Amino acid sequence: MLAELGNGFVALLHPGALLALTSGFLMGLVFGTIPGLTASLAIALILPFTFSMEISHALVMVMGIYMAGIYSGSITGITINIPGAPSGAVTAIEGYPMMKRGDGAKALGLGAFASTIGGAIGALLLMFIAPYMAKVALLFQTADKFSLVVLALVTVAAVSTGSVVRSVIATVLGLMIATIGIDPMLAQGRFHFDSAYLIEGVNLLPAVIGLFAVCELFIQAENGWKTPELGNEADSMKVRRRDFIPVWAEIKEVGLATYLKSSLIGTFIGMLPGGGASMASFIAYAEAKRTSRHPEKYGNGSIEGLSASESANNAMCGGAIIPLLTLGIPGDAVTAIIFGVLLIHGLVPGPELLVSNFEIVAPLFAALLVSSFLVMLSALVLGPYYMKIARTNRAVLYGFIAMVSVVGTYASTFSMFQCWVALVIGLLAYAMRKLDYPIIPLLMGIILGPYLEEYLRRSLIVSDMNPSIFFTRPISLSLLVLSLVFIYFLKIRKPRTSASAAQTDQS
Q: Helix (H, G, I), strand (E, B), or coil: what is residue 249?
């Protein structure tokens, strides 16, 4: 296997493979940065062109799009507080405050460095222990998946700043929105109020665009399209490319343990169907906050929280490929499209793929690892241009975002109704922000709501409507106990701040 992996790296040196990787990576950057355009949409668009490509080149291009698309969602999240993808939502919590106080280059550099570390660890785990980790993921039954989703929702509510009651309300509201449309078990409409349009339900992309892009448009309109104050450094100092290189003191402050732990969390979450980058980033962020020596910095520009989120985001890529290649189970929209790329080239994902055709998919492993290092390289080369996004005339910038939001929503759904849905959700998010309600729990409720319902109902069907199934399975029980532990340490017994700790020591 090691020899075949080596041949995969050699194949990556072919001019055609390098061109495919580079073009795919740049395409992923563009689609991930622009709100409304996602990595899954980019891969879907290039899917017809893969018919005429060599399978290795097609897979290499797809891996470049995947890695860049997950990373680049944080770029606009840091610079203008509008994540290009849901995976960048947590990064925006810490990155945008850093941008406002003049540390935008530092935030982008640390985010890219963490993404490189996480992406590389995820790719290495994919290469060497994919068969063993796939067996672990196979142990998760429906009840265990339900408890995992509960853990993710509890984590989001616990990590959110402000009142826990408001976080719970926002989460429940997101879960309610997720129930609109077709019942996944009975194939009939519900909560559609006799509207043919509401039977479509609320798609994820309009929800993301509404919560972040449309909401931000209303906020900026209220402020008169004024450019926000970004601090003296951001306003007056010319950004140099070396400013995007993290210094050793910052890396040491984050800590090797945070990078490694967050990357392992991201890889493991990526292996589970429905996990995705959003869940990985939230859980890694919560765990970093729980064990942090400076939890008071979280929400105000914590480089530790930012690094934890970005490490988990990109580590998820390697984890998501594991069940796809070894079990034939795509865990999210992106891997589902990658599934299609393999099928149209006559490769059937499953246990036999890595045994009989490993030499064909070996360039995929190599491309994923190389793409993780391209993330840091892209920040060094294109970082100053990322910073200019924040200095762009607000009226022009947000006018462009409004246009892209409408076009992106329509292009992904082919429904004008979903464009109106994005507007309504944007108004809802605007009202929530004015009333000091967090919108991240709302988003996670919409994302995870369908999985929560599906796993709950399937588990109850299997157990003859006996809810004890969630407490008799060891994995499920462990995850539920872990949820209680998170609630206790993050909300009931909050971590001491440095000031309070110092005061205690003095006394």
A: helix
Give how far the C-alpha of residue 221 lies from the chain's centroid of Cα atoms, to the nearest Å. 28
Alpha carbon of 108 to those of 24, 89, 298, 306: distances in Å? 21, 14, 17, 10
Q: Are 116 and 315 in contact (CB under 8 A)?
A: no
**Cα-to-chain-centroid distance, residue 421:** 22
- 398 by Cβ neighbours in 10 Å (0-12 / 13-18 / 19+) ranks as buried
Angle, helices 55-80/104-138, rounded to nearest 10 degrees: 130
Return the pLDDT at 372: 93
291 close to 244: Cβ distance less than 8 angstroms:
no
DSSP 303-341: HHHHHHHHHHHHHHHHHHHHHHHHH----SHHHHHHHHH
From the list 470, 492, 505, the residue with the least C-alpha distance to 145 is 470
HEC per residue, 293-311? CCHHHCCCCCHHHHHHHHH
Cβ-based neighbour number of residue 205 at 10 Å: 26
CA dist., res. 395 & res. 13, Å (int): 44
- Residue 260's pLDDT band (cuts 50, 70, 90): very high
Average pLDDT of 112-121?
Answer: 93
pLDDT tens column, 59-116: 899 899 999 988 988 888 888 887 777 778 788 888 888 888 888 888 999 999 999 9
Answer whether 115's CB lies under 8 Å from 378's CB. no
Distance CA(418)–CA(92), nearest Å, equals 25
What does the DSSP 8-state code read for residue 496?
A: P
Q: Is residue 230 predicted with pLDDT exceeding 60?
A: no
SS3 at position 428: helix
Cα 87 to Cα 76: distance, rounded to the nearest angstrom: 12
- Residue 385, exposed/middle/buried by CB under 10 A (0-12, 13-18, 19+)? exposed
DSSP 156-198: HHHHSSS-HHHHHHHHHHHHHHHTSEE-TTT--EES-TT-TTG
pLDDT the model gives residue 120: 93
Task: Dump pLDDT digits (tens) for 273-292.
Answer: 556 777 888 889 888 888 88
pLDDT at 148 > cutoff 70: yes
- Separation of CA 478 from chain center: 25
Nearest to 17, CA basis, from 4, 7, 3: 7
Average pLDDT over residues 429-443: 85
* Burial label, 344 (beta-carbon count in 10 A; 0-12, 13-18, 19+): middle
